[in-house]
Amino acid sequence: MARITIRNLDDWVIQRLRERGAARGVSMEQEVRDIFAAAVSACNHKGWNPGKEKTSLADENQGGSGLQSCGS
After folding, report:
1. How far apart are CA 49 and CA 39, in angstroms?
2. Per-residue pLDDT for the chain (72 aa), expressed as one digit of tens each?
3. Which are the contacts of 26, defined by CB distance < 8 A and separation ≥ 6?
4. Which residues contact 27 (CB under 8 A, 6 or more apart)?
5. Residues 50, 39: contact at Cβ < 8 Å?
6. Which residues of 45-54 are buried (b: 16+ CB within 10 A; e: fewer)?
7. Is the Cα dihedral 4, 28, 8, 16 positive or negative?
8. DSSP codes, 5-62
């Protein structure tokens, strides 16, 4: 398995990831893996335009659903 390091995440993002994971009975790491897997499996390469995507957790913090639809 590969590893990824994400630096400079805001404290509220880490806290929200912990809360989401705890609500599902999984670790914060597992929650992030699941979020990444869901995000990339929902978007095929043809329908995904990275320039149009918004930051999921930032949107969620502002009351959004947390996931953007692909190709919209």
Report:
1. 13
2. 899 999 999 999 999 999 999 999 999 999 999 999 999 987 765 565 555 555 554 554 544 445 555 655
3. 34
4. 21
5. no
6. eeeeeeeeee
7. positive
8. ------HHHHHHHHHHHHHHTS-HHHHHHHHHHHHHHHS-TTT--TTT---HHHHHHT
> What's the CA gap between 35 and 43, in Å, rounded?
13
For the record, the structure tokens of 60 come out as 């969620």
Give the amino acid at 2: A
CB atoms near residue 24 (< 10 Å) = 11
Identity of the amino acid at 45: H
